[in-house]
Amino acid sequence: MNATAAVAAAVVPAAGRGERLGPGAPKALRDLGGVPLLVHAVRALARSRAVGLVVVAAPADGVAEVVGLLDSHGLDGKDVRVVAGGATRQESVRLGLAAIPAEVEVVLVHDAARPLVPVEVVDAVAAAVRAGAEAVVPAVPLADTVKRVEPNPGGPEPVLDTPDRATLRAVQTPQGFRRDTLAAVHARALTEETGGALPPVTDDAGLVERFGGRVVVVPGHEEAFKVTRPLDLVLAEAVLARRRASDGF
Ligand code: CTP
Ligand code: MG
Prior knowledge:
Elements: E1 8-13, E2 31-32, E3 35-36, H1 37-46, E4 51-58, H2 63-71, E5 79-84, H3 89-97, E6 106-109, H4 119-130, E7 135-141, E8 148-149, E9 159-161, E10 169-171, E11 175-178, H5 179-193, H6 204-210, E12 216-219, H7 230-247
Parallel strand pairs: 1-4, 1-6, 4-5, 7-12
Antiparallel strand pairs: 2-3, 6-11, 7-10, 7-11, 8-9
The chain binds cytidine-5'-triphosphate (CTP) and magnesium ion (MG).
């Protein structure tokens, strides 16, 4: 399927090193049930009929390796391209976005580190953008109570306050955007960062919020969790084993 205005394109930032996961290959290339995390993530997107093109932002020194990996795994005939990522997640997304054809109107951004996102979440995010939202994030309620603290690494940290947990959501990906909105906030962040005034954001919707846009939340899924620390990989293996046992996935 070709990328046209009728289908969404997805950007997959995959250029991180995975420092919190510990020593080893870049996180996106780490193994989950015999398949790299990145391949799981791209397949999860490719499974959605809403997605026609996937652009992967690979580690800058790993572009050829990622092209080879994606070629050697079946990807439902979807158009998959690879570009070199950047030094931050934000830069990787911006570089991926620049490789999307001009006529594409809806863009999803999905972490390579979320290999098990169910296709229903991908479809729901794309549908909410199609229905008129400029920025959509899937999210789940929090299990833990959250406190804001005055950071003091290694020592006791004074608590500032405790936000009402009922109003908090843990945000996942894919996040969905009108393409013009996402391109505009990334371009503006790049210009304004040059002045050094802005703290980094950890997701794309955060940029939309920063510049006054409206972001809405749709239900996420517990299996869309991010593989960040070693225990997350254990959980991902268990979820995958359960899927394979139940439906030969
Ligand atoms: N990412 C990226 N380019 C970067 C940094 C991160 O494309 N320069 C991507 C990661 O590959 C990942 C996603 O952004 O798919 C979410 O980031 P995170 O979970 O923080 O991954 P890493 O940065 O790889 O992990 P860590 O922060 O533990 O090093
Ligand atoms: Mg990181």
